[in-house]
Amino acid sequence: MDGLKLPIQKFQLDSIQSVFYNGWTTVHYISNIFVFAPDGTVVSMVINAPGCLHDSTVSELGHIYRKLKICYENYNVRCVVDSAFCTKTEPYLIKSSQNPDVEATPEDVMVWREATAVRQLSEWV
């Protein structure tokens, strides 16, 4: 799963345009979230969300997390995400940007590294 921000033309009325403005990036855009299957097929998405929303918020409002949880419960599948998604620990998410700590096992570190390689594919699709 990955987010995609697409720039848009600035609207004339600041009150309307402000929902598409992100002060951190100082750009006007829409936010989109795409969930990819291993073969590159888009299996779920949220498009045209206001640019002021964080990827995790768009995923929550678009019910992406709920859909991923159902897939995990029914088929035991997990989704690779980066640090822009869900700060809480969920069994259906594999975060690729984990920092190994004292409690991390060598297996944990290997999963995180492999998850990073898989996640990067979604950025190239």
Commentary on this structure:
The protein is of the alpha+beta class and 125 residues long. The chain has one domain. 34% of the residues lie in helices and 26% in strands. It contains 4 helices and 6 strands, in the order E-H-E-E-E-H-H-E-E-H. Strands 1, 2, 3 and 4 form a 4-stranded antiparallel β-sheet that branches. A two-stranded parallel ribbon has the order 5-6. Strand 2 and strand 3 form a beta hairpin. The longest helix has 19 residues.
Number of domains: 1
Radius of gyration over all CA atoms, rounded: 16 Å
| Shape summary | elongated
Mean pLDDT: 82
Secondary-structure element series: EHEEEHHEEH
Count the DSSP helices.
4
The counted number of beta strands is 6
Share of residues in strands: 25-35%
Structural class computed from helices and strand pairing = alpha+beta
> What proportion of the residues is helical, as a percent range?
25-40%
N- and C-termini, Cα separation: 11 Å
Outline the biggest β-sheet. 4 strands, antiparallel
Low-confidence stretches: none
Descriptive keywords:
about 120 residues, alpha+beta, two-stranded parallel ribbon, elongated
Summary?
This protein is α+β, with helices and mostly antiparallel strands.
Give the helix/strand layout.
Elements: E1 2-7, H1 14-17, E2 21-22, E3 27-36, E4 42-50, H2 55-61, H3 64-75, E5 79-81, E6 93-95, H4 106-124
Parallel strand pairs: 5-6
Antiparallel strand pairs: 1-3, 2-3, 3-4
